[in-house]
User: Which sequence fits this backbone?
């Protein structure tokens, strides 16, 4: 069982059915015990699956005709969609998304073409991707809470109904949050604006 054969088996199984030790073992023509002995368990297969489905540079949005801000925004939206399509990418992001630094190099080159200094370009891309991964991780946790009837909105409403004399409640009321503020798409746009504005304020970034 070579690494290439294992990767191909995980790719085929992931494309046709839910990833499992039994399905991959069947695809390889070995028993499950042999596969466990070889890879250690399902998490190892999930990591391989995340690596083979990670977005490639060729799939990235083009920078043609865009400003650097518009390109980073398009890249952030693209990665958010990719992470939602394969949540395992969130858990294994640091090893699966860019194992060979190809994406890091491409992003740095693209941003330096926009006028970034090289170090600023590298940090800008890293910060953006980490922001998106963290946001999607939060979305996935929120989905689990909603399934149990414990959304952030419902917890916020309960907090407002708590001790009305406390400073905490006063501050919460000043936020004046509405249900639309808890919409994940709207919230993502706000977080993305903060992230890109923050990048724009750093040294080595073009005006």
Assistant:
């Amino acid at each position: 069982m070579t690494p290439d054969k294992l990767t191909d088996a995980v790719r085929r199984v992931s494309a046709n059915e839910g990833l499992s030790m039994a399905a991959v073992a069947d695809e390889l023509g070995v028993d499950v015990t042999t596969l466990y002995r070889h890879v250690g368990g399902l998490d190892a297969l999930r990591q391989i699956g995340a690596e083979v489905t990670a977005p490639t540079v060729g799939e990235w949005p083009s920078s043609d005709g865009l400003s650097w801000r518009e390109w980073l925004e398009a890249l952030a939206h693209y990665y958010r969609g990719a992470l939602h399509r394969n949540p395992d990418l969130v858990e294994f992001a640091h090893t699966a998304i860019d194992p060979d630094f190809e994406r890091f190099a491409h992003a740095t080159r693209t941003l330096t073409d926009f006028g970034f200094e090289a170090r600023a370009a590298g940090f800008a891309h890293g910060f953006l991707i980490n922001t998106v991964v963290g946001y999607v991780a939060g979305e996935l946790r929120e989905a689990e809470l909603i399934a149990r009837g414990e959304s952030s909105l419902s917890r916020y409403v309960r907090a407002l109904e708590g001790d009305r004399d406390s400073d905490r409640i006063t501050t919460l009321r000043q936020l004046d949050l509405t249900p639309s503020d808890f919409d994940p798409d709207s919230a993502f746009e706000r977080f993305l604006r903060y992230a890109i504005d923050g990048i724009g304020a750093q040294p080595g970034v073009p005006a």
Q: What stands out?
A: The mean pLDDT is 86.
